[in-house]
Amino acid sequence: MSSAAATVSSSAKLAVKPLKISSLSSRSALPSVISLPFNSRGRDIPRKRLILVTCTAGDGAKPTVLVAEKLGEAGVKLLESFANVDCSYNLTPEELNTKISLCDALIVRSGTKVGREVFESSRGRLKVVGRAGVGIDNVDLSAATEFGCLVVNAPTSNTIAAAEHGIALLAAMARNVAQSDASVKAGEWKRNKYVGVSLVGKTLAVMGFGKVGSEVARRAKGLGMRVIAHDPYTPADRAHAVGVDLVTFDEALGTADFISLHMPLTPATSKMLNDETFAKMKKGVRIVNVARGGVIDEDALVRALDSGIVAQAALDVFTKEPPAKDSKLVQHERVTVTPHLGASTIEAQEGVAIEIAQAVVGALNGELASTAVNAPMVPAEVLAELKPYVVLAEQLGRLAVQLVAGGSGVKNVKVTYASARATDDLDTRLLRAMITKGIIEPISDVYVNLVNADYTAKQRGLRITEERGVLDGSPESPLETITVQLGNVESKFASALSESGEVKVEGRVKDGVPHLTKVGSFEVDVSLEGSIILCRQVDQPGMIGTVGSILGESNVNVSFMSVGRIAPRKQAVMAIGVDEMPSKETLKKIGEIPAVDEFVFLKL
Ligand SMILES: NC(=O)C1=CN([C@@H]2O[C@H](COP(=O)(O)OP(=O)(O)OC[C@H]3O[C@@H](n4cnc5c(N)ncnc54)[C@H](O)[C@@H]3O)[C@@H](O)[C@H]2O)C=CC1
Ligand SMILES: O=C(O)C(=O)COP(=O)(O)O
Questions:
Q1: Same domain for 436 and 583?
Q2: Choosing from 73, 188, 276, 321, which is the catalytic residue?
């Protein structure tokens, strides 16, 4: 007879092994808004509550948003209509770490480093970091993901501003505008010294043909320049549409009279202009950087300027901002500098502020903006369809893990999605995340959501494999059944084991409500609400009444009952949905019914 433990012992071991996910349908990121099943770790919100709608749902209190850098007024107003907004600029790292434990969201620009310590200091309360701009190199994305914190950015509103600044620097550099301006203001009049170079007919290599790069290319063509581009990830026809040829990195370096940098700072792009690559450039090349300082080895640039490989540079961004006052690069007479002004136009800042405020409010409301950078994006219409299956997926994971005997360890999870739809017509990322959540949360202190599900599974050594069963029939609903199987485990309810020895539960959605439809080889039918008692018994008359009256006597409301049997008068599994948790004595009485072979109480 099994014990009536509500959850598997937290000592259940999850061996650390690499995650194996064989998703059968992987959609590319699609712009949309989705409901994000957030799990709050906020101190003011009970830990077990799954926040599907709003983070104020728990106690009615407004969330708190810390705006750590200057944000356009319209964005602040939008935030204020929803949250308590604390605009505190120029915080030291220590002050930020102290404040963050009281904040649900943080909004920054490029001047605030959001490192691991910020997430650690937040102690789980921080649910969203909004980057009011494009580059997210100042945010530790791995730490954010690990802590289940969503990171969103505002990638579209400052594109033109950055492109215009690139062009401004290009022209200013070519005509020595900054240097000659300083000279005139110093009382000089040196017309011969500041003779410039023309742009027309020159070759500009745009490195990084994304939003900003392509706008720079368009404008440079308008100035009569020949534009080539290097971007390993952009399709050639995108460049051709603007009349630009995509070339290799070396070809770009070897051909260009001007080079304009527009790629993000990543480990791959860090210091991509260095001694070796400067050596491949045409002598007298001119370089514009409105991307990130870190893509250039700044010491190497000084050397290239001194040796004459680089005639001039115009820089808006620096490895360290602000750069040291005595920086050789900044002080170099052939270098034009601006203090990271690419996105700083009135128009761009207003747009960015609104874009980020909307994304942050949406996220706090349980939605995931299309600009999420550390979570899969699921289109709104897909999410609407999948909503009941999302609940089903989590409940099945939760049930399956509770059927494992403590100490046997959960490593291998097999999920089968049976559907009449084509195999590429089901986005399983959300479902997989929720199954992971259901499996991990009952046995650990980790909070799992769409952001950190895959990471957490990997950390815990869960190998999740996904399979698609293709059914005949109407493809109206996205899914018929979801089956979750846990391999190489013992079960505290032997009847939950499949013929091949896995703990197996299967469910489906009926009239919008998730149901458990199979346990091991036994068919049952119980809606997944409240909690469930599973009993294996000898199939005989009066069993439903006997169990029902024991529960009734202890004032436990039965919401649902079903019996699945192998054959009449043989073994049967009774599934009983209960609204309240029965006392130990009540469960003991059920276990003592002579015809009951084993039973288990499962909390949803
Ligand atoms: N100075 C400023 O105030 C501003 C700076 N930026 C910087 O500009 C960068 C680009 O912004 P967007 O165009 O909006 O981003 P984006 O994501 O639209 O474009 C980046 C492009 O770089 C390409 N890329 C990635 N790795 C590359 C590599 N190794 N070589 C060549 N290309 C590579 C990508 O394929 C992509 O097409 C941002 O990451 C940000 O750091 C953006 C806005 C304002
Ligand atoms: O959007 C970007 O990537 C930028 O570099 C703009 O930075 P900022 O918001 O002006 O600090």
A1: no
A2: 321
